[in-house]
Structures
1.
Amino acid sequence: MSAKKSILIINQSAPYGSSNGRESLDLALTCSIFEMPVSLLFVGDGLYQLINNQSPEQLQMKKHEAMLSALPMYDIDQIYVTAEDLSENDLTENDLAMPVTLIQRDVIASLIQQNDSVLTF
Amino acid sequence: MTIAFDEEGFLRDLSAWSTELAVEIAAAEGITLTEAHLEIITVVRDFYHQYQLSPAMRPLVKAVTLALGNDKGKSIYLMKLFPGSPAKLIAKIGGLPKPDNCL
Amino acid sequence: MTLHVINKTPSNLPLYHRMLNGLSAGDGILLIEDAVYAGLSAHQALFEGLPIDIKLGALEADIQARGLTHRLSPTFTLVNDKAFVQLSCEHDKVVSWY
């Protein structure tokens, strides 16, 4: 039996302004149902998906941070954010909706290398 | 007053749900609703309110384990109460959207 | 007087530069949709050195949705939908940058 393929999903889009965040989440949840190892990297504008205290009621959209915070329930807990993106936005881990693993930007290349497939949203 | 369902029988207006309605939806699925069913439905409705998602099977088992303990947090227990596809049936009876990625 | 409406995140720097280049004294800038992230204090360097009487605003619904209510730089005024309509009427032109 061959090992399941691992997948890295790179999120580089802000939430609400496009459907990229939702599509990425859908893919992550589907992969978890097939018990594929899933990692998520939030980089650039993608970091904004994780900012806490979102309140999209007026936009009549689902609260993105709420759905993201379900990831550990789907056994997805490899969630990466770069320290550089946080500091460039004057944000800290306390501004985020869920626990993440902080990495340096120069670790991204090895994350990409380590995974069998990489998809970007 | 008519209550709207989609083509698969999931409630369109989530706020239209009530325990009485759950009894009716369950009956149409051949299930006589008991307290044992309702406590699971409550767990799943709480999950939906927290995460805005109807849980698939794995997170469902996890959520039930967290809320009601290991004896109930088992697929076999959930399959007995909601035969066939528990995640889908619980969402349907609980007045929630069909779980995405439901196999 | 022109109202400049922008809707992309501040990572689209050339877009911001095009907008800023098109400003005249007395104009207004309104951040909407993904552009509201430009209202984070970390990005205020973008708006430094503007003609002093430029008014800065950000659409309230978009700010709230994205969790920025308490993170918006104080140089921006929150604008609700009604005020957005009013602003559009008060200015002779509305230019969208997207």
Note: Residues 2-97 of chain C form a domain with the Hypothetical Protein Ychn; Chain: A, fold (CATH 3.40.1260.10).
2.
Amino acid sequence: MHFALPPRKTSRPPPYAARNNSSLPIPPALKNLLRRDKLRLVVVGILGFLTVIWLLGKSGKDTAPKSTTPIPKIPKVAIGSGPPVVIVTTIDPKADPAWVQKIKKNREDYAKKHGYLTFFPNNDQYPTGKSPLSWAKVPAIRHAMTEYPGSTFFWYLESTALIMNPSLDLQSHILNPSKLEKSMIVNEPVVPPDSVIKTFGNLKGDRIDFVVTQDKEGLTPTSIIVRNGEWAKYFLDAWFDPIYRSYNFQKAESHALEHIIQWHGTMLAKLALVPQDLLNSYASGPANPKFGQYKEGDLVANFAGCAKGKDKESCPEQMKPFFDILDQAQ
Amino acid sequence: MCAYVPGNTAHAQRTSIPRIPPHNSSNSFTVASSNSFSASAGQRRRRSSAARQPPNLSLNNFPPPHSGTGTTSGISGGTGEALPTIPGTPAFEMSRSSSPRPGGWSSPGLNTPYDTGGGGSPQNVTWASAQARSAEVKGYPAFTPRNQGFLGKHFRRISSSLPFSYGDKEKLGRGRYQGNNKVLQWLNRIGWNLWRLRRIIAPVLLIITFYVLFYVTPLHRYYRRSSWFGGGNKFVVILAANQGGGVMEWKGPREWAIERDTVKNKKKYTQKWGYDLEIVDMSTKKRYAHEWRESWEKVDTIRNAMRKYPHAEWFWWLDTNTFIMEPTYSLQQHIFNKLNDVTYRDINFFNPLNISHPLTDQYLDPESRSPVGDGKPDSINMLVPQDCSGFNLGSFFVRRSVWTDRLLDVWWDPVGYEQKHMEWEHKEQDALEYMYQNQPWIRPHVAFLHQRKINSFPPGACGEKGDDPQIHYKENDRDFLVNMAGCEWGRDCWVEMYSYRRLSDKLNRKPFEKIKDWIVDTVKARWEKKNKNGDKKS
């Protein structure tokens, strides 16, 4: 279409266009380079340049002597592929064999019911040196982890304790993250009554690697749950360090535990302190005044200190009525 | 534009004559006196002065100004022969009658096409004259005049003195220079070939330009720092300054000089490779003294650095008395790209402490019992060199990881310190050795570096002679770093620092400096020899 006349020019001429729109003055030679038809050239140039730099950076040899230890084949077992819980109890080989059989049977019955495993090492098979044999529980847990690398939780239960309520499943009873978050005691002094170090208040249930209880005097390593993993190795190895074993803590490994928990934040951050009757009710001994005493229906009845009694037979003696109750239930 | 003609135009020389090809017969312009000629030739250039000339001076002999503008091709391309073909030169003007210009025939005295100067009659106003006048009135020109620079003013004269000869014209040249000058021919050919190959040469030139730009500007630092290319932001150098200073000891000028040198050395190195440098004050503090934990601040310091540089992966601890001898080595190239090759995890390879290495306790997992951990470089979280007496923490690496977090946490423990503080002379270093031996979880994640990779010793540390190939600095191998360990006890730190700094400078001279030094040295040697001979003779 052609118009007869060109359109009328505006009577208000636009103001002069700015000489340079951008504040950055680009020289015309560079501007010319940035035109679209030249862009390919520029891109190729940059890429070629980067390649040259990259190639130059690759060179370099090394002449240092090399260690020639072959890389061992370490079988990788995924945590969680095995039975969920392993119950560990260290056995004193000098104890009454009949009683030991009963203790073992108590754990085995419970494990069979829930598909768990049991592990009963002797307490003198570990290099505890001159320190008390109660230290054996630490390498025993580590040993169980070596034996059953696919399991997730390792429940150490002292031989002075009995599982009294086999119907309670450990996982739904304690270890379920939401359950754990609800039941763990936060902001509580690690050592009663007034330690400055208190349990953390904002821990997530699925991040907990260590479940422990507290009696009247302090942390009770007679019934603890440790989650398998790198943290467990760190925790157990640090706990078992000869420097603590040789220090003459009054209560050996349980004071050492209190010490490392209070001084090292990476351990406290993985710890969940649960009410004593969830995991470690005392049938006798210095129970936690709030919820430590054994009552019917609790998972565990612990005869704390019975082994240290004057007569060696005190443990079987004290446990007798409880064994009877268990036998009746079956 | 103009040409100097060697031979035949002796009468027209001196004042150079514009727009007249030299081969012209000269009779055509003898009419015009040479000075009127040049005056009006300058007319367009210096308007005001030209305007003073009487307008009727042989105007018809000359082309109207615009016709002369085409003749500028001559010198720039070296193809001056093309001149005669250009229309509007006086020779043709004289010999042929050309058709009238747009302004009509020029008739002197009747019309004055251009400004007649000063107060001209109003009816003769042309655009050019008006412009000229307005320029006069304003006092400064309305536009920036061209040819104001040195070249613009003098180009004519300079170019006319160049040795171009348009004397013999060769028709076959097709506009190219065909003279006898070999060098020029040669240059010409190169120029043409370059132009012909421009599609290939341009990218190459571009790459070279980028390369130069890259290293001249700080661009290479950004490149080396970026996590995509160089990865320099993954490394932090922690330099302990002021070690043991503070209340216990005043710093003298030597200590200041040492600190200045060591800081400068690390600053330069980290800047070059895009690493971060964290200089920490390690002066004795009451807080640590109270808790018996002098020199365990190292742990707190590393933790702080980890918090401060959240993107960094490896942290390199360096004592004050260290000097990076080879700043051209990057950490990536020197160590971390070939971590498996430069480290050893089986301590039996070099074991001054006689640590019984693979742990044999049956209760431990296979990884803890293995001599090399899982053997993968990813599982290395700490790199420590060993000197003649065990671990050396004057220069070591830790990697940010959960493992490191735990190690830093258990490193200092009051129970351990209470029992061992008399025994542990080197405090945190001994504590680490102790933990390595007694806590199995540590072993699979510690790898050892050859001492001379990052921590060569000078003679005096670990043996007076300094000839242990595992430990002592060797100039010929260009070791990376010298740690003047223990120089505060009986040796002179400043002298060592100074001499190693000089040595490093000497080893890392630029090629140019090497040549210069070589020349100076040979001249000096000759001079001395001569002097010696002279002495002998006398």
Note: The longest strand of chain B covers residues 235-241.
3.
Amino acid sequence: MRNIQKIIKDGARKAVARDDVKYVLGWTPGYGFRVSPFFARTAEDTERLIFSPLCANNLTIYLTLQEKLPLPKAAALDKRKIALFVKGCDSRAVIQLIAERGISRDELVILGVPCGGVIDISKLEAKFPQAIKVEAVEEGEKLSLKVDGKSQEIPKEDILLKKCSLCEYPNPLIYDVLLGEEKQKKTKDYQGISTFEEKSPNEKWTYWGDKFARCIRCYACRNICPLCYCDSCILDKLSPQWIRRSVNLSENTVFQLLRTFHLTGRCIGCGECERACPMGIPVGELNRKLEKDVRELFAYEPGIDIEEKSLLSQFKPEDSEDFIL
Amino acid sequence: MSENFEPNIVAFLCNWCSYAGADLAGTARISYPPNVKVIRVMCSGRMNPSFVINALQQGADGVLISGCHPGECHYMEGNYIARRRFTLIKKLMEYIGIEPERFRVSWVSASEGEKFKNVIAEVTEDIRKIGQMKQLKREV
Amino acid sequence: MTAFSLPRNEADDFLVALIEKQSLFAPVEKDSIISYQLVANPGDALWNFSNSTVPPKGILFPQTETLFKFTGSEVSGGIELPPQEKETVIFGIRPCDGRAFKIVDHIFGWDYQDPYYLERRARTVLVGLSCYEPASNCFCTSLNGGPSSKEGLDMLLTDLGDRYYLEVLTDKGGKLLNKNRKLFALALDSDTKEKNSLSKKVESKLKRKVMSCDELQKKMGDLKEHKFWEETSLRCLGCGICTYLCPTCHCFDMQDEVTDGKGRRVRMWDSCMFREYTLHASGENPRPTRVERFKNRLYHKYKYYPDSFKITACVGCGRCTRYCPANLDLIDILTEIGKI
């Protein structure tokens, strides 16, 4: 397993050497436990790439983030492909983007990396608050850490991000090259959500109202979402202004309702929204709730097949309607 | 809830069936609770969840959407497509603690004046029981 | 000014006295998020923490604030300032966040005297709490601050184990002390020595540093068109975390909100990282991409602000680095700038 770093770098070097590739999107280590997204443009750059359980960022967002400005006169559009590394969940975002015609398959070179789950960095930072240089290697169920020269082993289960401990798709579903060995799938269950559904409206609102009240509306959950790529977002519209800019419980709640609803049958569960939230609001839980309903009611799962039609643009005459008068 | 609480209900009715159904209730002099304020939309498929949420923010205690029966949509499948959307937004709203009574959907055809009355009566009574909308209401 | 000491077991009495006569804001932890909240119970206030998630700036410059109300086309009751509220005390401000108030004072008291901010500022006493456990991304010493920097604060408490060392820094702080004088004993010379050596010790724990403010200001003047910006800002997601959690970011937007014929003019925080921030009514956007927006944020902090007010608009609290979901590490970026 130790040579995964070499495999990653080799894969990236081959991709970046292609004439039709603009850059390779990967991860590079930052200060302490942090890992940054990185745009490798040369063979030399690819030496800085790594893959480890600290690589949480879903790089798919960078496929649609670039602003499309009018080209200067006589300039030609750069039609070269983008190569990017994808973990299992990230690959579903790529599939969903292609299915929605957000990007086309031939604009991409997909480098798949099987992933055994990524780590909740804040948990490690709490354990090692002054870490400067960190190496993390996955060894089965353990994470072997080298923090400033000292080696440590930590059971992975304790520090995994929540979405990863229930991951059904550790292996990329779409790729041009697969780098590394395939990982064991886990089974997903919606235990927590089913339990919460049983509560009374009052109990539910006590929980969520408290969470929404502290939202600062930085829109990180929207901006980091690989599937929130509308050119003009309902949150920014002024006329009509569906959501006021003032920060209070009513507007914050509506913001989360609409954000979640706009991802119905599209959210692929990469959990980036939840990871990005500086206020610790479990926004991903709302997405998981709808994911569960979509599965149960419509037997639909987004991000699996690039030919799939979107959930809300199709129907079956026998769809359930037991709540309708 | 205090006894003199009168629910404020916004009903979005589709132009071809439910609006005509409400019209029929009127011409047939069937009386129904006056708590409902009707907004006509061309099809239940026109309904954006923002309409529902925005009404609840602006002081509605409940929202009703009514359209043609499945299979009878003027635009062939508008209500089928809408139905999925309604199911999911309802589930989501319930999940954060908005009472299920606040968001209702019904199918009322142009000939069902009596049913329209029954729907309005039921929705009004249910909301009267649970009281004012508090979760989404805007503070002024 | 004079220094005092407060036995540790009487620290809560001090908070009780503050709660009685003033509105007390103190750091409170909930779901691992630390923010400054109005407290009614001294037990709710945190004394041991590295720094809050959300800086205390929102108490003086609320994220959403009603400027005035109106009905129809009438402004009801003219432009009304917020009602005279009780004197407010913010307790447990880290020295970096305290310095931030001093920095923000410049903009709110500049060519236009902002009555809302200044009124609150005048009736608020800022009680600082020296740092003893800096977080890994703290770099206040590079920005003329330090674990027990006094700027901007009215009082500063330092934890000396069995007692707190209290320095009164302004008249406002003096008045607050006099109200509670009996809780405090005069500090001994040995206390002062102990405090100073503690500050040095804590300072040595800070591992991250950048070049000095003056160098940065000069250097950035030459870098406006450098390709460095484009490459660096590619990673930026354009969210508002870095600006909303920044103790010195002070931009706002104003909008009218009308419901049922009644309305209010509200001002709310705005972020230069948003596309709408510079979007004109015509559709033109002078900062069309994340490159310009990202560059502007850094230029504002390290170049334009010191050009205007002779002080850098950054205190080195490290929040932007800590919370950036794309790990745009400000300290690395500033270090890179130094190398160009």
Note: The interface with chain C takes residues 58-59, 138, 140 of chain B (CB under 8 Å).
